[in-house]
Amino acid sequence: MADRDQTALIVVDVQYAFADAGYWGRRNNPACEANIAALVTAWRAAGRPLVLVRHDSDEPGSPLRPGHPGNALRPEVEGPHDLLITKQVNSAFHGDPDLAGWLRDRGLGSIAICGITTNHCCETTARVGGNLGFDVQFVADATHTFDRAGPDGVVIAADDLARATAASLHGEFATVVTTENLLRCSASG
């Protein structure tokens, strides 16, 4: 694993809108927010690079639109950070300011990704980060997602989507890790 002092924690879309079960449906991983908070706390305490990402939707009716209460970041991530990326697409690498440039300017070749949702913005950020040559740690238990209907109309459970994301990413685009594993490595690295 990369030196944790040279690893940026990328916290994706931890926003109030995702608490709206009426809009998004059933979610998985009730421990997600506590795991994110533990990672953010550890990164801040160690003075490691912390990047927050906020989805500023331009879709009419989206609860993630700027100016809507759902656009705000949740308390788990409020506080000091090194960079705020805003985006309208899935990957944090396609937001503003330029995440890859910011990381490279600081000599940071390693990232750890957590946030919402597992199989959309977190997975896409991991895939793009891996393709750009970054050492990506995907903290699967510090993400969550929602049940989703497939093109055939069959609903796929959020837990199954999360497992599929982990299987697709691990060893190809990222190393899938747990919060506990990353924190343990952080304490020793």
Explain how this protein is built:
- The longest helix is centred in the N-terminal third of the chain and has 15 residues, at 32-46.
- The chain contains six helices and eight strands.
- It has one domain: Rossmann fold (3-Layer(aba) Sandwich), CATH 3.40.50.
- Helices cover 33% and strands 22% of the residues.
- The mean pLDDT is 95.
- It has 189 residues and is of the alpha/beta class.
- The protein has helices spanning 21-24, 32-46, 99-105, 118-131, 158-169, 179-188; strands at residues 7-12, 50-55, 83-87, 110-116, 135-144, 148-149, 155-156, 175-177.
- The strands form two sheets. It has a six-stranded parallel sheet, sandwiched between helices.
- Strand 6 and strand 7 (155-156) form a beta hairpin.
- The protein is globular.
Secondary structure layout plus pairing:
Layout: E1 7-12, H1 21-24, H2 32-46, E2 50-55, E3 83-87, H3 99-105, E4 110-116, H4 118-131, E5 135-144, E6 148-149, E7 155-156, H5 158-169, E8 175-177, H6 179-188
